[in-house]
Design goal:
mainly alpha; about 70% helix; 2 domains; two-stranded antiparallel ribbon; single chain
Length: about 525
């Protein structure tokens, strides 16, 4: 018993803070490593460290009482989880192209789990898939089995090979050793988050953010970044995400018809207090459900703009009609705004920017007329704070926090704790961030804000450059811009796996386009035509 008590005492002391910093460093190394073994080692370290930090955090929480009383139950559960991960790892190793569809399939599903005294809606299926995908890369990379075929996962060594699969003859000093700028800025942001968690008044939440979001999502990004996204794979993932969106919309229709909510008791109470009824499907939050539907609709809109197959256009229009009905039932104004931003971006890429601007002005004018005719419908008779469901107060509170500590902020994940300290009578359901830029400024100060702004701007440049004749890239860029807009009205930027998914796929497609541009003119034209046909076939 004494060694166990000593070990736990160490985990309960200052070591968790050091562990969060180390986890952030492992994430950065995963994103920037220049060879397979180094990347695999960083992945393995992150996979091992994250659950240790989580267990240290929740060891005394009520949900582990059963494990304390009956350790065998915990051991059996852990072995079952490892068996599932191992089975998926074997499947991915044998058929590497399964990884992308599995990630797309797992991204939307959340499971409510208590951690640290609070209930969190965790992406458990995604964690399992990411762990399996990472192991499918780690094992052969650490074995260095030259006889084994190269896995079509994120293997940096493949960047140093020419088109014939032979080693690159260029001098070693000319090879790229660090990842592109998106990877660098992601690594910078995560490292800053880990360091600034050390002085946060809510270190427990910062630790959970690192374990539940930044570590698994960074591994997912690395895996997606290394996949070769050809025509068939893009089409398969697009069909899968469209089918999921329709399924979730149907769940929303059932909720609305029966006036029942499957998940989120708070939404049940809110619906009982209002004359309207809001649906959330399987997403717990109507705004997150609306965000998902809006992003899928933007991806499908690209099919309408570029696809000339009449049958597929009719099917796409039908799917869009179903998703639009589902989006309306969420009553998410931020999601409607994000949809308009994404569609405007697609229009600007597909046609002249002036046409998109004129269309946007017309839409805004129609919206302004509707608000002027019936302001009560949009909640504007309640004032700015009432119309925004209290978010205006959160923004002003966040700005005040930034003014108090403009350089380094109050620490990672400190917004809720500090806001409630300053506003003790605020609603418990509203004392959370709804504007990501303000949150970062309050929590991480100018240091974190500059890293966030640089990441957004560089990502937009990388994703938007050269997309006019490239439908898949245009769709990804428009969806990412819409997501950024949504985070300015709601929350969750790098805490949303969709952000990392769009960045990973978009960066991989951008790198492939740059590689095609360096080929001979004939090969480059053929490569671009192959990628373009992904949305028209």
């Amino acid at each position: 018993m004494i060694p166990g008590v000593t070990a736990f005492a160490a985990l309960s002391g200052p070591l968790p803070k050091l562990g969060v910093v180390v986890a952030a460093a492992l994430v950065a190394l995963t994103l920037l490593a220049g060879n397979d073994r180094l990347k695999a080692g960083a992945m393995l370290g992150a996979l091992a460290l994250a659950p240790v930090l989580l267990l240290a955090d929740i060891w005394h929480s009520p949900q582990l009482r059963t494990v304390h009383r009956h350790p065998l139950y915990g051991l059996v559960a852990a072995l079952l989880a490892l068996a599932v991960v191992a089975a998926i790892t074997v499947a991915i190793s044998r058929r590497p192209r399964l990884l992308a569809p599995l990630i797309v399939l797992a991204v939307p599903f959340r499971i409510p789990i208590q951690a640290g005294g609070t209930t969190s809606n965790l992406l458990v299926p995604l964690y399992v898939v990411v762990a399996a995908g990472a192991l499918a890369f780690i094992v052969p990379a650490l074995r260095e089995d030259e006889r084994a075929p190269a896995a079509p996962l994120p293997r940096p060594s493949r960047r140093d090979r020419d088109r014939d699969g032979q080693p690159d003859a260029r001098p070693v000093r000319k090879r790229r050793r660090l990842g592109p700028w998106i990877e660098r800025l992601l690594a910078l942001y995560v490292v800053l988050y880990g360091i600034q968690a050390v002085y946060s008044p809510d270190f427990e939440k910062a630790l959970q953010q690192m374990v539940f979001f930044y570590v698994p999502f960074a591994l997912m990004f690395a895996l997606l970044r290394g996949i070769e996204w050809d025509r068939r794979l893009i089409r398969r993932c697009m069909e899968l995400v469209a089918a999921l969106a329709v399924l979730f919309a149907i769940v929303g229709f059932v909720e609305y018809a029966t006036k029942t909510i499957i998940l989120n008791p708070r939404l049940v109470v809110a619906n009982d207090l209002h004359t309207y009824f809001t649906v959330n499907s399987v997403f717990f939050d109507p705004d997150i459900f609306g965000r998902f539907l809006a992003l899928v609709m933007i991806l499908l809109a690209a099919v309408l703009l570029y696809n000339r197959n009449q049958r597929e256009q009719l099917v796409t229009i039908g799917v869009l009609a179903v998703l639009w009905a589902g989006l309306v039932l969420t009553l998410s104004r931020s999601s409607l705004g994000a949809l308009l931003v994404g569609l405007a971006t697609l229009a600007a890429i597909r046609w002249r920017v002036s046409r998109a601007v004129i269309t946007a002005v017309v839409v805004v004018a129609i919206g302004a007329i509707a608000v002027a005719v019936s302001p009560k419908t949009f909640g504007l008779n309640q004032g700015l704070n009432g119309a925004s469901s209290g978010r205006a107060g959160l923004v002003s509170g966040g700005i005040d926090m930034f003014k108090s500590r403009p350089l380094w902020g109050y620490g990672s994940a400190a917004f809720v704790t500090e806001y409630r300290k300053r506003h003790p009578h605020s609603s418990t359901t509203l004392a959370a961030s709804h504007t990501i830029a303000i949150t970062i400024a309050a929590e991480q100060g100018l240091i974190g804000e500059l890293a966030y702004i640089a990441l957004v701007l560089v990502s937009l440049i990388v994703l938007l450059r050269g997309t006019r004749g490239d439908p898949p890239r245009a769709a990804i860029a428009a969806a990412f811009l819409a997501l950024v807009f949504h985070t300015l009205l709601y929350a969750d930027f790098l805490e949303d796996p969709v952000t990392w998914l769009l960045l990973g796929v978009g960066a991989a497609l951008a790198a492939a386009a740059r590689g095609a541009a360096r080929q001979s003119p004939e090969t480059a034209v053929a490569s671009r035509a192959s990628v373009t046909s992904a949305s028209t076939a």
